Amino acid sequence: MSKLEDYGGGQVPDADVLVVTTNDVPGHRVERIIGEVFGLTVRSRHIGSQIGAGLKSLVGGELKGLTKTLVESRNQAMERLVEQARSRGANAILMMRFDVSEAADVGTEICAYGTAAVIAPVA
């Protein structure tokens, strides 16, 4: 039986830096835009998961080992994104996105990026 965290991610409810994919946060106003921030990680694929993925691709179905690796990578990129924003005084990241690409045929580059901002509840 797999754990939910193995195949998903996202923020914990009480996070000190709110990350949203929207341009604004309902019930809040943007007091200050700090600027673009990003978190980056590059992961190589280990030989075991590549062999397993190759065999699985012959019969079809989910490549669970690669899925777990991608989830871990995205979560690490997001953690780094939040650290960058926090270190610059932000309490929110607006318009967060992920970008995934191949890195010189040796791994996968995952970049989480967005706009660091200071937001406050509307009075």
From TrEMBL:
Task: Name a Pfam family for this protein.
Answer: YbjQ_1
* InterPro entries assigned: UPF0145_dom_sf, UPF0145_YbjQ-like
HAMAP family, per database record: UPF0145 (MF_00338)
Q: Which family does it belong to?
A: Belongs to the UPF0145 family.
Q: What is this protein called?
A: UPF0145 protein ACFQMG_21880
